[in-house]
Amino acid sequence: MRVAIVDYHAGNLASVSKAFDRLGARTIVTSEPEVTAAADKIVLPGVGHFAATRALEDCGLRSVICNSIEAGVPFLGICVGMQWLLCSSEEAPGRSGLGLWAGECSRFPASVRCPHVGWNSLHISSSDSRLLRGIGSGAYVYFTHSYRVPLLAATVAECYYGGAFSAAVEQQNLYGVQFHPEKSGDVGLRVLENFLAC
Length: 198
Description:
Elements: E1 2-6, H1 13-22, E2 26-30, H2 33-37, E3 41-44, H3 54-58, H4 61-70, E4 75-78, H5 80-83, E5 86-89, E6 101-107, E7 116-121, E8 123-124, E9 140-145, E10 147-148, E11 155-160, E12 164-171, E13 174-177, H6 185-197
Parallel strand pairs: 1-2, 1-3, 3-4, 4-13, 5-6
Antiparallel strand pairs: 6-10, 7-9, 8-11, 11-12, 12-13
């Protein structure tokens, strides 16, 4: 099994790769559409601005990722990689996401400090989540983001900061986490291990 970690110059690639290495996974960090298309699983990390996802379109990765998802290949989006699954984000007006889930990512309200950085707890809302198997509600994970995914029908875990938002989403072979599993200790490793088993 080969896991493609997509490089579009907007992710903690080394940290994500090392986390999978600890689990014994065979990974390849790549920006090549052909390599990504041949992978058994795809991971899209993301740090920074939503506009960075334009690079996925420019190098032909957007269509490859869409085709792989449609073919049933397990896909995990991390942080901005998860936000990209929605239609759009207020962070980059005019830049469209994949639109696999309806909705738009919004900035945290002025009532809380932004960005949301640090450890916060998960409130697991689905007892049959494959991604969160073996993780109890209340487990702490590490976040760093200024924009958030709203609650969706696919939400399997929420977090509360300036209101509720989606911390993890899951639907068939499609998975996303707003937090950074590669920085979330044993809980984060368990999330990645669960993804490898999907």
